[in-house]
Amino acid sequence: MNFLGNIIWLLFGGLITAVEYLVSSLVLMITIIGIPFGVQTLKLAILALWPFGRTVRTTDSAGGCLSILMNILWIFIGGIWIALTHLFFGILLCITIIGIPFGRQHFKMAGLALTPFGKTID
Fold first, then answer.
1. Structure pTM?
2. What residues contact 11, with CB distance under 8 A and at least 6 apart?
């Protein structure tokens, strides 16, 4: 079932979303300061490519104060808008019964988009 969900996800926007995150990741990695943020958008690209069957979890060593500081900076730079976009699409998709599994994937991506530092994708 996860395989079928991922194929439908890819056909209806997942591939485009993953490419957008990948391009933004490469643009962020042009500067040395942007590399940590580029790595986080790379996480979002991986999750956007194949979200069904994956889980986002907080790492055991989440980085402490540096992780918190980077998450706060991430939120102010644009992470809030990414999270709100995924939240909006999640709510929109959950209106129909067929869209609920896809809405849940957007909710998963919204959580990662809000605070990506200190999290991994399994």
1. 0.87
2. none
Amino acid letter for position 114: L
| Cα–Cα distance, 80 to 71 (Å, whole number) | 10
Taking alpha carbons only, the member of 50, 79, 59, 38 closest to residue 119 is 59
In angstroms, the CA 114 to CA 37 distance is: 12
Tokens of 41: 């958008």
- Domain borders along the chain are 2-121
| DSSP-assigned letter for residue 61 | S
Which strand (E) or helix (H) includes residue 58?
strand 56-58
Give the model confidence (pLDDT) of 62-93 as tens digits. 567 788 888 899 999 888 999 999 999 999 99
* Degrees, nearest 5: CA angle 120-97-81: 45
Residue 51: strand, helix, or coil: coil
Instruction: Provide the 10 A C-beta neighbour count for residue 75.
Output: 16
Q: How many CB atoms lie within 10 A of CB 81?
A: 11
